[in-house]
Amino acid sequence: MAKKPNKSRNMNVYSNLTRKRRTRKDAEARKKAEYLASLPKHPVKRFLHRVQPRNFFGYWFSKRGGIMALKVTGVGILMMVLSVGALFAYYRKDLDSIRPGEINKRVQTTVTRYVDRNGVLLWEDKGNGNYKLVVDSEDISPYLKEATIAIEDQDFYDHGGISVSGIMRSLINNAQGGSVQGGSTLTQQLVKQVFFAEQAHKRGIGGIPRKIKEMILSVEVERMYDKESILALYLNESPYGGRRNGAESAAQTYFGIPAKDLTLPQAALLAAIPNQPGLYDPYNIAGHEALISRQHKVLNSMAAQDYITKTEAEEAKEYPILDSILPASNPYKNIKAPHFVQMVRAQLERELGKATVGRGGLTVKTTLDIRIQERLKQSMDDMFNSSVPDFAGFTNGAATVEDTKTGQIVAMMGSRDFNYPGFGQDNAAMAYIQPGSTIKPLVYAELFSNQGKGKANYGSGSILADDSSMDEIYGAELKNADGRYMGAIDIRKSLALSRNIPAVKAMHIAGIKPTLETIRALGDINYCTQGADAQAGLSAAIGGCGTRQVEHVNAFASLARMGVYKPVSTILEVKNSQGEVIKKYKDESKQVIDPQVAYILADILSDDSARAGLYGSQFYGLYIPGVKTAAKTGTSDKGGKPKDIWTMSYSPALTMGVWFGNPDTRVLTNGNSSLPAKIIGEVMEYAHKEVYAAEDKWSPENGGNWYDRPEGIQVINGELYPSWYSKNQGQTNAKLVFDKVSKKKATDCTPDGARIEIFVVKFTDPITKRVGYITTEGYDATEDDDVHNCDDSKPSVGTISASNDGDIEVSVAQGEHAIREVEIRVGGTIIATLPGSGNTYRTNYSPNGDETQTITVTVTDSVYYTATKSQSATFKADNSGNNDDDDD
User: Fold this and answer.
1) Which residues contact residue 482 at a Cβ distance below 8 angstroms, ignoring those fewer than 6 apart?
2) DSSP 113-130
3) How far apart are CA 635 and CA 428, in angstroms?
4) How far apart, in Å, do the first and last CA atoms of the chain sit?
5) Is 706 helix (H, G, I), strand (E, B) or coil?
6) Distances (CA, A) of 584 to 122, 124, 570, 587, 745
7) Secondary structure (3-state) at 286
8) SS3 763
């Protein structure tokens, strides 16, 4: 039988233990109280007593102080862990969309393919070399892997994405002036390059969130990929100078070999570059010394970590590595439409970011049509292979062709030849060049738009006199290209014949600011905005500011779209390396001017007879057989001499502009602005008939799909006016009497024979408020007859004699002017009109039996002065007898 425990004894044991603990606690409390009692009572003195070295260190090295230190440290660590955890949790929520598990899909080839609208390859943007960026791990030299780990991340195979020791080592080395490696692991650098390339330039506080996200993603990537995969991704993604991303492209560009065949010196050089790819770019001669120094550090690090021996490192240093670098290849070899492609690339860099475009892997489907582009290039080559440029004095040219309906550029040349020495690669289609008179249609667009209370309205038949009345307002003598005035001509003739003064009047009437706003709204968005041009006044009406050809063509395309603006487009679609569409053409439009205004302008600019006074009718390029177009030429000048020559042309299908000039703004020897028209004609005819007709974008029927007249347009005396034009604006029909000789208004001294009454259009000049007239056949209603004077000597008739048988002889005398003719009548019937040839005139009259008749002689001189004399004469059938003379 088991013995029962002795409860009394057990209670004794517990009682003794409790008593001992209480005694110990009491002793500690008593000791603490004695310690506190020994301290000075004043708080400051007590503090000073405690911080005395003997007392301070005595406490913290005591058992009690040690326990307190452990507690403080534990709480601090706990707070730090909680803080870091909270921080990571806060930023982790922003990373769900990044998908670190798909990082391998982000590391793709950097070759960007640019194709035309039909898929024809224009350019493969590979950087400076023919390379394949992404290769498998086994296709990368072990030397390059080891060199990269040695210089960038010594603990690569030991950490899980973040290296605390690496961060500490970096901080210590940086503090000591060393630069063995940074604090980021290779995994972190890979994450930064792939996911945060556009933010990597940030520093300080702004970069802390990115760093935290990098760490989180690095841990995730390490969890999803093995080390060899991560290393291969890093080497395929890293920048190796210029636009060479990836080990394979670097190896082929610099050494002409695949990455798997890199030698130790080559691998060490490449491993040195990603730290500062701009400085260490082997083609950057200024950075060669720094590059070699960095390569030597790579080799030292490899030796220190036993990847190679010190002997191998020294031998590699002795190898003349820079001598083996291949020359930089031409990145534009075989490129088509180079100016256009480079313009597209610059646009993508602005819209998608330089890092995205730099990484490449894009497929860019452009708006270009290679068929029209090649025809443009052929025409430009033919022009510059001819004698015309030398004769005219220009050395360069640019042309742009735009699809009217969409605003998409289908062809462009920014210079005569992309490879031409000196300026060939400069894109003149994007340079600021004065457009000369080609700006005038846009000026009249605002004038025709004039409507509203108190505003005068205008149409193609409105009169803006071509005279000297603007000189005072303009602030200088305002001239036309021919140095003459044409007087009271209508706007159709003013625009078609490119008269300067009416265009300046148009801007003055409509207002400089509203006119410039309309010009910019139509597409010339930078006209009169750059530098001194921003202060331009009325000179802007005749092309006194610079504009970009691409924008100028689009402004004309807005006219061709019946007043609808669309942004210039060069890209139809952009796909990334995964085939995802990241950019697509979007059709945007805005009605800027009324269709009636655009129609009136198109009617004027397509009127071949109206512009015939410049270059004759059916001048090729301005007139295109079978393709109805609207066209305008223009010339800018410098010191009174021609500097730039332009031709603009448009139809409902296509719009085009061509410029010729000199890149150094040197003046031309022959500034005929019709010279670019040849290229206009050749390209526009081909594009319409051979390309657009085949694709049902244009038809030669119905005048080449010409515009239907908008509802509301008024036709007055054969001219076009918008619906808001008021007929009662002072422009009326009238009659005036002119002198036929001087073709000026008749005066009291003008003889009746010189007077002629013709119909005129009476108007009030909007600038001078003077009444004026539009006349025909060269009559001038602004001047009085200055041929006839009231005291001019007139012609006279002398003797008149007649024989019985009908012979008549007359003598006359001329006055101040030569005799034009002598008219002889018998009995009221004209029997002879004799041209002026002296003082005596003879003729014969056949009587009908015996009769007495009155002979009347009228002499007229060259200016229609006349004199008349009559006398009777008797005629006999038998021809006998004489006649007596009687004065009238």
Assistant:
1) none
2) EEE-TTS-EEEEE-SSS-
3) 16
4) 193
5) coil
6) 19, 20, 11, 10, 66
7) helix
8) strand
Strand 641-650 relative to strand 630-638, pairing = antiparallel
Q: Do 549 and 645 meet the contact criterion of CB atoms below 8 Å apart?
A: no
Residues 6 or more apart in contact with residue 339 via CB below 8 angstroms? 412, 413, 414, 415, 418, 425, 427, 429
Cα dihedral across residues 721, 722, 727, 731: positive or negative: negative
For residue 687, the model assigns a pLDDT of 98
CA-based nearest residue to 191, from 227, 148, 234, 248: 234
**Token pair of 577, please?**
């390396």
CB 429 within 8 A of CB 412: yes
Quick one: pLDDT at residue 203?
A: 46
Give the position of tokens 């303009």: 474
Hunting for tokens 């210029």 — which residue is that?
A: 242
Whole-angstrom distance, CA of residue 645 vs CA of residue 389: 12
- List average pLDDT for each run of 10 residues in the chain, which is 888 residues long: 52 57 68 68 68 66 70 76 61 53 63 94 72 79 95 90 67 51 76 68 52 76 86 88 82 92 96 93 94 96 96 96 88 91 94 81 95 98 96 96 98 96 95 96 96 85 90 88 89 96 95 96 96 91 96 98 98 91 95 98 97 92 95 92 96 98 93 92 97 93 85 94 84 88 95 92 83 82 91 94 91 94 93 92 89 93 95 76 42
- 826's tokens: 């018998």
Residue 736 neighbours by CB under 8 Å, 6+ apart: 745, 757, 758, 760, 773, 775, 779, 781
Structure tokens at 485: 């005035």
Whole-angstrom Cα distance, residue 359 to residue 197?
A: 10
Q: What is the C-alpha to C-alpha distance for residues 791 and 256, in angstroms, rounded to an integer?
A: 101
650 neighbors 606 (Cβ within 8 angstroms) = no
Identity of the amino acid at 826: V
Cβ 139 vs Cβ 248: under 8 Å? yes
* Token code pair at residue 222: 């390490």
Tokens of 399: 């042309």
How many distinct helices (H) and strands (E) make up the chain?
28, 28
Tell me the one-letter amino acid at 542. I
At position 803, the amino acid (one-letter code) is S
Quickly count: other Cβ atoms within 10 Å of residue 172's Cβ. 11
pLDDT at 168: 63
Helix (H, G, I), strand (E, B) or coil at 34: helix
CB 775 within 8 A of CB 790: no
**Per-position b or e across 738-752, b if 16+ CB within 10 A of its CB:** bbbbbbbbbbebbbe
Structure tokens given for 239: 């920048």
From the list 786, 785, 774, the residue with the least C-alpha distance to 486 is: 774
The helix/strand/coil state of 668 is: coil
